[in-house]
Amino acid sequence: MKERARDSGKIIVLIALMLFLLSGCGGDSVDDKYEKTGKYLKEMTEETSPSVNSVGGEWVVIGLARSGTGLSEEAEEAYLYNVEKYVKENINEQGQLDKSKSTENSRIILALTALGENPADFAGYDLIQGLSDMDFVSRQGLNGTIWALIALDSGDYNIPDVQDGGRQTTREALLDEIISSQTKDGGWALVGDTADPDMTGMALQALAAYYEDETVKDAADKAVRCLSDMQGEDGGYSSWGNANSESCSQVIVALTALGIDPNEDERFVKNDKSLIDALLSFYSDDGGFKHTLDQTAQQASDTMATEQAYYALTAYHRFTKGQTALYDMSDVK
């Protein structure tokens, strides 16, 4: 009997050892991949200075700044130099950086705020002024409205008086325009009347700060249900018919801004696959992220996908640590 008990004990120990070893074979954890991607992007900014651009520009700056990884001193100085040069070459008397795209102002405002700079007085220019004209902001459609509100709220900026008799931008007007654009299925769309995850996620990012308002809460709750219904069986999202990482990223930023855990909330777990699991499935061996799963793990990652995945994981990391949301930069000194 003692021999049998001894043998049983050995078997239990062996099984426990096997389970322990197998648990380490599942690949890097969320934190590991997050850290590696941060290192990958930081090295990228050291090789090529961030510029004023939707790729290789503000989004990588925001992600690194908000993660705490930060840019190197040289990369940050180079970026600020590039912004100053761009502003001087492009700004008009109304403080607008582009004739039709207010997101140029909004994107740079977010990056400067993340770096602790003052976009209301950057190199002698007021970039907030450019968002004071509601007609200009609305000219870009829902994208313009959403990102203007996010940018203005990132540093709780006062909206200057509009110049030359334009229509004054207010937070109420921005909110009204976003909410009135909600589709019947509960989300938002860039075009058409069927919600897509990217625009729904971005709209929620703008609305999150106003969730205590009953009208906003009603719209946001409908959108959360819409996103849950849209989620695929693998935990991810498709936009324009293609499963992609960027859609996952936008929804993660939205949910964390609303205080919803994209890794644990049962509304966003399908077949035991969470939204975080879905995003990590796009991870590439070089430390970046792929746009679609058609790319093999060995192929070079996609820069836009990597930047968005990183700031989404930054939003999630900040959420798990009880820090302010990605675009709530009230903690920046």
Keywords:
333 residues; mainly alpha; Glycosyltransferase; two-stranded antiparallel sheet; two-stranded antiparallel ribbon; 52% helix; globular; disordered N terminus
General description of the model:
There is one protein chain. By secondary structure, this protein is mostly helical. It has two domains: 37-170, no CATH class; 182-324, Alpha/alpha barrel (Glycosyltransferase). Helix content is 52%, strand content 2%. The strands form two sheets. The protein has a two-stranded antiparallel sheet with strand order 1-2. A hairpin with a 2-residue loop joins strand 3 (269-270) and strand 4. It is globular. The model is unreliable at 1-26 (pLDDT under 50).
SSE layout:
Layout (H helix, E strand, L loop, with lengths): L1 H22 L6 H18 L10 H10 L5 H18 L12 H12 L19 H5 L3 H13 L16 H10 L16 H11 L6 H17 L7 E2 L2 E2 L1 H13 L11 E2 L2 E2 H6 L22 H18 L13
Antiparallel strand pairs: 1-2, 3-4
In short:
The chain has 333 residues and is mainly alpha-helical.
Low-confidence stretches: 1-26
Mean pLDDT: 92
In helices, the fraction of residues equals 40-55%
- Separate helix tally: 13
